[in-house]
Each structure stands twice: as C-alpha cells, then as structure tokens.
Amino acid sequence: MKYFHQLLTFFLASFLLISFVMAVPQPQKSVIISFPKDTPLNILEQAKEAVRAAGGFITHEYTIIKAFACTGPAKAFETVHELTSAYNPNIEDDQVVSIAGSS
C-alpha cells in the first residue's frame, strides 16, 4: 500500500509539473506581414487565420498594400511563412519609425 501512495504521489506531482510548464504563455511579438501585389486574397486570409489559430490577433489591416499587422507567438509567424512560402511573405517586426533630426 505504501508503494501505491508513493507512485500516486509521483504521478500527481508529474502531472502538475507538466500542466504548469504547458500553461506558461509564450511571449507575444508584434509584426507586419506583407505579400507581393499579385498574391491572391485567399492567401492573405489564410495567413490571418493561421495567426488567429495560434492564439494571435490582427491589430491592423492595410488596404493600399497586401499586408496586415498582428501580435502573436513566434510559432504563429513560422507557420504563416511555411503555409504561404510560395508567395514570398515578408514578416518584419512592427516598430516605430522616425526620421532623425526632424522636428
């Protein structure tokens, strides 16, 4: 009976540890994903859906160019690149751009 309690304690502790490790949120990253102008719209929608499916969200959709800004785990952007690599997506960090010396 003592062996059973030790085994049960071990499995319970292991389960709790695994649950804790898996529950740690992945760091979020903000990027802009753009595509060449001849990319079909369904590819753009497929990329957005891949971001959402990975737990990310779309922060802005551009209309003049085929692009969108989003936030999500880095894994989401790897998936987008793999799914749409035939259309040469450009995935770059979203950041503030300024001109040095401007007033």
Automatic annotation (TrEMBL):
Gene3D superfamilies: Peptidase S8 propeptide/proteinase inhibitor I9 (3.30.70.80). It comes from the Eukaryota. Residues 1-23 form the signal peptide. One of its GO terms (molecular function) is endopeptidase inhibitor activity. Keywords: Signal. GO terms for biological process: vacuole fusion, non-autophagic. Belongs to the protease inhibitor I9 family. This is Proteinase inhibitor, propeptide. It comes from Tothia fuscella.
